[in-house]
Amino acid sequence: MQSVSSKMTEILLVLRTVEHSKAARKLRAWLLSAVCLCFALGFTAAGAGQVSAVQPTLQNHPDQPQPFPNYAQQLTDAELKQHPDVLVLAFHAVIPGETINRVIAINPSLWEKFQWRPSDDIDTHTAVDAKTIVQVIPATHRMEVHMPLYTKSGAVIATFVCVWNFKDERDAPDLLRKSQQIRDEVTPHVEGVEQLLSKPL
To answer: How many CA atoms lie within 13 A of 91 on its CB side?
Structure first.
């Protein structure tokens, strides 16, 4: 099969050999339109492979509209007020009817960037494995604690995250205990994901 460029060359050669009669001018105009169309198709075909190679990004909004601020946000705001030294608090959960774990509540200053964003692997797996993951990052003096969130009856339904700034790595054990304390303050108020996603009380 001939390439697009070789076909273009043949058409241009025909254009050069057409005489300058009235009929010939019409033919030249028709052929010129064909050249433009072939170039357009050629560029489309060349770009098609690039477009198909791009991976679609996960949507940063729920499949169905959700009440917001929600009850999880009410709990977040209350704990941020009670613990002003914590940098970030966030709830991650799977909205009923979806399969993606998402941020369902976080500091109001971070809503635009993170609210409803799909969670990373750590926050997704924490709610499944019920394992606490601690990330201490000395370069940025940042510590993240990813914990399973329990209902007051003891079922794991989501991931609860605390983020801190620290001065010394030796602060890590104390910050872990503080994170667990905040999570445990929330637990008696949690009945299920549907409650967390409902309107504030």
So the answer is: 32
Give residue 168's pLDDT: 92
Residue 60 is predicted with a pLDDT of 80
CA distance 107 to 176: 19
Give the pLDDT of residue 61.
86
Q: What angle do CA 122, 196, 198 make, to 5 degrees?
A: 140
Low-confidence ranges of the chain (pLDDT < 70): 1-59
Two tokens at 12? 């241009």
- Domain extent listing, the chain: 4-53, 71-197
CATH 3.30.450.40 fits 71-197, yes or no: yes
Rg of the chain over Cα atoms, rounded to whole angstroms, equals: 29
Phi/psi of residue 164, nearest 5 degrees: -130, 155
